What does this fold into?
Amino acid sequence: MSTSPLLKIENLRTYFYSRAKQAFIRSVDGVDLEVNKGDTLGIVGESGSGKSVTMLSIMGLIAARPGIISGEVWYQGEKRINLLDGLKDHLNVTEENGRVMGIEKEDAQWQRRLEANMEGIRGKEIAMIFQNPKSAMNPFFTIGHQIVENIIKHTPYKAREEAKDRALYWLDRVKIDSPKLRFFNHPYGLSGGMCQRAMIAMALSSEAKLLIADEPTTGLDATIQSRIADLLEELREQTGVTIVIISHDMGVIGRLSNKIAVMYGGRVMESGPSAAVIDHSDGKSHPYTEALLKSIPKEDNLSTQGHLNSIDGEVLDTINVPKGCRFATRCQRINKSIEERCKSEEPPLADVSTGHKIRCWLYAD
Ligand SMILES: Nc1ncnc2c1ncn2[C@@H]1O[C@H](COP(=O)(O)OP(=O)(O)OP(=O)(O)O)[C@@H](O)[C@H]1O
Ligand code: SF4
Ligand SMILES: [Mg+2]
It folds into this structure.
């Protein structure tokens, strides 16, 4: 069995510039992640922890400046390629004591290089399902038209009639009612749940190997949320597609994912098999993950739904990242023997058991 990851993110950093604060917001600040073929990786973390920006960076869909400033995103398609290849040639980053002081970017060349790297990848190899499908689809065209165009662009089905049959096949696969009628609907003519199904059909229709779903069930009512989660689970089983799913709903994450990554302040704090991260099967857990899991209201059952609430303390300000552990000001497990270290030195993301990594001095040695 091949062990090379389908996607390997190394030290990804995506910053934005805040004019108001005249400083860089370090939205993604050294993310390392791996997704193996056939895995469903769930990404969790409080609001603002950098989950969406990480995924948008992979897709090259960061519009605001300066955007992606460093790192590597290795994608294993027919050959292994770095989706960020050559971008650093068009950037000049000035740092002082680990703090970014200035970024000069040759915007046009940088963007051209990014688009060249993404050619044949975005939409074809890697497809994305967004939280709000109505704004992600073109309001002026029918969903049928949009799916047909996607199929013609990305698959061997080039003849329009053939692509239309294939579009109907996908609309049927996502269990949209009356696919032949829905084919002629515009996105605004569909309910939220139906539109999300159409978006999933569109993403799958390119027969992408990696599906990125950013909050695919948020904003839908509870019954529809659960049906969309059922659908994703079923499609994953049937098609074997690799999935990265971001959700605030631990019920959805727990059900769909075999691996989980926990983000905080633009960094991955813990990653590993779901059993280790959620159920602490090896007896090890990051204090932040523990606090997140405790924030789920008791009446919510993790296997059905489990919405993450906020935890005590202020969310990290990624403009002024502290020297030590990012979670130090909120950590409940800091103890005398490691306190100094927690405040002065950032822990590495260290292996604590097979495939399980934790960024915490409690486990670093
Ligand atoms: N275009 C942008 N310009 C400036 N700051 C941005 C931009 N996009 C995101 N950010 C900031 O980057 C940080 C990470 O944002 P991101 O959207 O990735 O968070 P998230 O983990 O997906 O949160 P949520 O769970 O609320 O969706 C936030 O502080 C956000 O305000
Ligand atoms: S390194 Fe220290 S402050 Fe950070 S999570 Fe671990 S114990 Fe808490
Ligand atoms: Mg988000």
